[in-house]
Amino acid sequence: MTNQLCKLFVGGLNVQTTDEGLRAHFEQYGQLTDCVVVMNQPLQRSRCFGFVTYSSVEEADAAMAARPHVVDGNNVDLKRAVAREDAGRPEALAKVKKIFVGGLKDDIEDEHLQEYFSQFGVIEKAQAITDKDTGKKRGFGFVYFEDNDSADKAVVMKFHVISGHKVEVKKALTKQEMQTAGGRGGRGGRGMGRGSGYGGGRGGYYSDYKRWVPRTRLENHCIRVISAGLCDSENWSNGYWILHPCFE
């Protein structure tokens, strides 16, 4: 395990929530080494999301296990922070319980995957995929977890060593999920470019907190919209979904 797993993204914060308020809520689960509500510096207003970093993975796990969280009256979205360089990947936007494991050698069996990845959470099933006709290993496999946070933990670390061999882990998405996730990444690259690096000097992490908002609330109260994409419902803000809206 690495300190990558100690940093959590907190989305959907009340605009009035401060660093101190965020710390007061999350320090009950362990010692915090960093806690910040990300601000719109020109306006000096909260951007309605932040980060908390624990001193150990166990403490971060305790906070995740206590979901859902309510901070200053808002139900917040808590998840593992994703590194900036991975923000553009479609799977960064998806909540899944299944991971893809690539680069498997022929000597890696189902039980090896089961044994290794059980450190991230409870596993429902682990498979090293074989060719249906020849029975030969195809060099990849899948692991199914009970909880999406377990999958996130494995994916955040990206590269793993199993039975002496380096493998790469990604979220396993269906074709439809890939298309949906890709469409949420921001139109023309603008949304992803603006939303992919949070926290400035604090590491540049990304997450995909989003919320549907009615047209009237958007027009009357929105402080800042970072990104927008298409929505099918005519009842929502002129047919758009909004990424990271922030309200007074």
Mean pLDDT: 78
Instruction: Decide which structural class fits the backbone.
Output: alpha+beta
- Count the DSSP helices: 7
CATH topology of one domain: Alpha-Beta Plaits
**Total DSSP E strands:** 17
**CATH architecture assignment name of one domain:** 2-Layer Sandwich
- Low-confidence stretches are 185-248
In what order do the strands lie side by side in the largest sheet? 2-3-1-5-4
Helices and strands, in order, run as: EHEEHEEEEHEEHEEHHEEHEEEE
Keywords: Repeat, RNA-binding
GO molecular function: mRNA 3'-UTR binding
Organism: Sinocyclocheilus grahami
Protein name: RRM domain-containing protein
Defining key terms:
single chain, 248 residues, alpha+beta, Alpha-Beta Plaits, 5-stranded antiparallel sheet, 17 strands, 35% strand, elongated, disordered C terminus, Nucleotide-bd_a/b_plait_sf, mRNA 3'-UTR binding, RNA-binding
Verbal overview:
The structure is a single chain. This protein has 248 residues and is of the alpha+beta class. Among the domains are: 7-81, RRM (RNA recognition motif) domain (Alpha-Beta Plaits), CATH 3.30.70; 91-172, Alpha-Beta Plaits, CATH 3.30.70. 23% of the residues lie in helices and 35% in strands. The protein has seven helices and 17 strands. Strands 2-3-1-5-4 form a five-stranded antiparallel beta sheet. A five-stranded antiparallel beta sheet has the order 8-9-7-11-10. The protein has a three-stranded antiparallel beta sheet with strand order 13-16-15. GO terms for molecular function: mRNA 3'-UTR binding. Residues 177-196 are annotated as: Disordered. InterPro entries: hnRNPA0_RRM1 (IPR034801), Nucleotide-bd_a/b_plait_sf (IPR012677), RBD_domain_sf (IPR035979), RRM_dom (IPR000504). Residues 182-196 have a biased composition (Gly residues). Residues 6-85, 97-174 form the RRM domain.
